[in-house]
Amino acid sequence: MAKVLLEMKSITKTFPGVKALDNVNLKVEEGEIHALVGENGAGKSTLMNVLSGIYPFGTYEGDIVYDGEVCKFHKIKDSEKKGIVIIHQELALVPYLTIGENMFLGNEQGSKWCIDWNKTYAEADKYLEMVGLTDSSKTLIKDIGTGKQQLVEIAKALAKNARLLILDEPTSSLNETDSRALLDLMKKLQREQGMTMIIISHKLNEVSYVADKITVVRDGSTIETLDSKTDDISETRIIKGMVGREITDRFPKRHDVEIGDVMMEVKNWTVYHPEFSERKVVDDVSINVRAGEVVGIYGLMGAGRTELAMSVFGRSYGIGISGELWLRGKPAVLKSPKQAIKAGLAYVTEDRKGNGLVLSNSILRNTTLANLEGVSTGGIFLDQDKETEVAQEYVRKLRTKTPSVEQLVGNLSGGNQQKVLLAKWMFANPDVLILDEPTRGIDVGAKYEIYCIINDLAKAGKSVIMISSELPEVIGMSDRIYIMNQAKIVGEMKASEATQENIMACIVGVRGESENAEAVNAESVGSEA
Amino acid sequence: MNDFSMKNVLKKNVMTLVLLGVYILFIILGFAIKGTNILEPAIVTSLIERYAYVFILGAGMLMCMLTGGNIDLSVGSFVCFAGAIVGLFSVENRIFATPLPTPVVILIAFGVGIAYGALLGFLIAYVRIPPWIATLAGYLAFRGLGTQYLTKASADAAITNFPDSLEKIFGGYLFESDWGEINIPCIVIGVLIAAAVVFTTLLSRKKKIVKGYKADPMGFTIFKCVLLAAIIMFFTVEFSFVGGFPVVVLWIGGILLLYGIVTEKTTIGRHFMTVGGNAESARLSGINNKLVMFCAYLNMAVLTVIAAMIVTVRASAANSTAGEEYELDAIAACIVGGVSAYGGSGTIIGMVVGATLIGVINQGMQLIGVDQNWIKIVKGLVLLAAVVFEIKSKQTKAKPAAKPTKKETASEPEDEIAKAQAEIEKALNDAVDEELAEAPAESVVTTES
User: Fold this and answer.
1) Inter-chain CB proximity B407 and A15 less than 8 Å
2) Which of A76, A394, A469, B358 has its CA at 20 to 30 Å from residue B228's CA atom?
3) What ipTM goes with this model?
4) Contact between residue B332 and residue B362 where contact means Cβ atoms under 8 Å apart
5) Topology annotation, domain B49-176+245-370
């Protein structure tokens, strides 16, 4: 048995109201590639943040034993000193600096006051060779593709004398060929340098390809660790571990809701990325939603769900949008969010702080923002008494916890912020509500209340499209589910027929859909090349 | 949080109190050092006439700053240019021999203003040139253009002898009477305005009570009414001794009232503030961000034309040094008046207090014979102090947010990944620092679910 390099013992990490990690144990042996898998929000990233010192010692319970000693990391630098290097999903490279400059950023070569550029580039070239990158270390980062940038990140980590390399979703932005090259590099590093690695990934085929051991994380706990030598590590087996939880009554039932006519229909909708104009972010998508119906769109992050929603909502995202939009049986052209709101659409954004709410404004001002006509005379003069009335009504209706409607939204908790955001769009009186990750980052109690609100909306004859990356939520709340992956709809099913396994299967393409998914992969490679 | 308390009232009006304090200080100093009475009608009126442009340009600058801390640097130069235009067409000169009738001149001036504002707005909102660069270009170009015309038009680079009709619209006095004699119409107007203010204050309180909202206690409302009435009557009496009601005061009052209503009571004002508060959120709420930006700069240019005419009439000359550093005065007025340098919040009243404070410091120090350079130093320090004060007071307000924010980060683990390593480190260090420092104070206002 090889030596155990890292052991995380009964790690518990609590955030106010949420237990993100509950008694997690993880054992990584020297020289192995260890995969962490789990659904979004299962706690993988939190665990890695605890390990790398982003959540400093003292904010969690349990011990980190690394290389035989108990470690107390207070910041990232502490863990890096020990050789634990984390490579985040979003690359942290400066586009207008060279590869060499990026690699030694904050770790400059030379004397204290003077950078030795010869040494910098010589060292950089050495590490680049190690990762198999042939570009000169004097190339600017912006001039190389994402695949190569990922390799630079690894070279950068090696330059820090990494002993334990953590890769967080390293292939999420790479195409098939680059992904494969990266995975092979991981194997090569393991073979030639005895590097220990932890990989976090959603792509289970990659995990089974590269990992020696796989630890499944679910709901903040480690469920099991599979060994590639002794256990079955097929994708189906991993999925079972990931989702093998029973759905309890976490979701309020809808009764007596009549599902009516098709309210909104999107046909052959295609959208291109606003910056990389040849990249399709939504590819020939057709969906519809009926009055009183809750339609779930499930997909992993980056599947194109938000892009779809925003492009439908008054073309607020993307370029080269093509396809048809039908509202109440009539074709509609919505060129701006304003027109979309007028036409009865509402888009409740995923990132409530970034583009949903104005945090420096009061609940009152946020509530009426999307429908100022409703609280003003002639669309110009605000009736501030009416505004207060409206805001108070929604605070009461949605049970938002706040001392007054004058409270700044920035001072509210996540769940209450979400309620304010919902109130804002409910007051705009839409027929179709697109809810993008409506329960992200809020605690269980608040989630239940949000679900009740969704049910009330459906009861009132509204059409609800709920985008979510939480499987149980999609299954528990929807009447019908679309599954989206890599810019396409890869499956549609009634909620009654849906199980976590067959939804996940649509995405990884294990069962019937496999040819379909592969076709998608092949196409995406083609379009990126 | 909404409850009435003396502490909150004081907190809200810190700048006003500072202004009062400074004013009283100068009254005492002026009397002690020079034996002059700063409260004298002539001095008060000249202070207002002299700084009229700050209030008008400040209103425009406020609208720009609300959209996200954007400023307009070309204001001062455009005052010079617009003044030159007015001079060129209304007075006989070497370029243009036959003066046009005053209404036509005014129309031309506004036309030029609208054209420039539209161009500037277009460049900033639709071509997406950063405001300070686009307006820096205007700052340079219009100073050059104005000087060019004025040099060509007259031997001493200044056009003088404006027609009476123009001077009556943008300067001079209403209900003229002898200097130093009490002016009855002026007093009557003052009393009427005071009565109107008191009436509306009481009415809005009553309305609130009828509808069941929280209202200030009666005592405070009466105090507020008395104070407002006293201020209005003070100025009325001052004006009534200087030979009539200054027309400039009408312009200032009208513009401030209009913009006060626009920013506080209309959807337009709400649009401006939301764009500054969170542009992306505003866009997704159906607000046309580009149009808002466009209007901000169009509006600024139109107000600049009004200011230019007032300044030109007051100086009785359009000259090439007119309007120098006016843009900075307007920006300073906003900043000292608590308008957020990042956009999203600010009031006309705040701007007025800021402008007055700077004006009082300037004029007061001049009167007691302080050197010009020292005045500049003091003004700089006041500006700095105001910004530090604003940021500090925001930080204390933001503290209750520390906890929920942390929770947010916490429960969105997948989001974490997205952040650059350094950012996370910094943010968390900050959060922890704040948490350690503020742990006991938090529980009071925080609303946890």
Assistant:
1) yes
2) B358
3) 0.79
4) no
5) ABC transporter involved in vitamin B12 uptake, BtuC (1.10.3470)
